[in-house]
Automatic annotation (TrEMBL):
Pfam families: NrsF (PF06532). Keywords: Membrane, Transmembrane, Transmembrane helix. It comes from the Bacteria. The chain crosses the membrane at residues 26-47, 59-79, 91-111, 131-150, 157-178, 184-207. This is Anti-sigma F factor. It comes from Acidovorax temperans.
Length: 213
């Protein structure tokens, strides 16, 4: 069989990809992953009885805002990494910006606090479990993101896996913030970021295996 005939046979019945198909898949993954994380949070941790009082504190919304500020550029980066040849590096500054801002504000808060209170603000009472709780709640979104990438055409597999992990970690942190009793900014700057890094590193390690064509 000639090459032209072979190509024509392979192309028979091929249909163009619907416009914005990847965006719709990612939106469906966000809905499914977010719902899965919320369900897992309710099953494993439950709602705190003092949630209404926590919601009256500015830092409660600050935690949610920080996680959302990372989830948005992480989703944008994932859309680019899912396409071959798309420019994604300039998105990194929008990923780094909320982290740098929270670290700067946390450093300022520590400088304004008495020295005896600084470690308490960093460690809180849940530092041993917080990162792993966030990583646990990221699992539904992690699976959903890799489902999206498996149906796309990523070429930088480690970076694509890391992007999926970062988005998953941000969603996990967003959901966990509803349960988390910690309200100190230095705690969030250290342990929330650590929790989001767990699925990010896992995605970078497993991306080349799970996303291989």
């Amino acid at each position: 069989m000639k090459t032209d005939d072979w190509i024509a046979m392979l192309a028979t019945g091929a249909q163009p990809v619907p416009a914005h198909a990847l965006e719709r898949r990612l939106f469906a993954a966000l809905v499914a992953g977010g719902a899965g994380a919320a369900t897992l949070m309710l099953l494993v941790f439950g709602l705190r009885p003092e949630l209404a009082q926590m919601a009256a504190l500015p830092m409660f919304w600050g935690k949610l805002g920080f996680a959302a500020a990372l989830a948005l550029p992480a989703g944008w980066a994932l859309l680019r990494l899912a396409r071959p040849g798309a420019d994604w590096r300039r998105v990194l500054r929008w990923v780094a910006l909320p982290v740098a801002l929270v670290w700067a504000l946390a450093g300022w808060a520590l400088l304004q606090s008495p020295e005896a209170d600084r470690w308490g603000q960093v460690l809180g009472s849940t530092w041993r479990s917080c990162p792993f709780n966030i990583a646990l709640l990221s699992v539904p979104m992690w699976i959903a993101c890799f489902w999206v990438l498996r149906r796309a055409a990523p070429t930088r597999l480690a970076w694509a896996g890391a992007g999926a992990g970062l988005l998953s970690g941000a969603v996990g942190a967003l959901v966990y913030a509803v349960h988390c009793p910690e309200m100190a900014l230095p705690f969030v700057a250290v342990w929330y970021v650590a929790g989001m890094m767990i699925p990010t590193l896992l995605g970078a390690l497993l991306g080349p295996r799970l996303l291989r064509w």
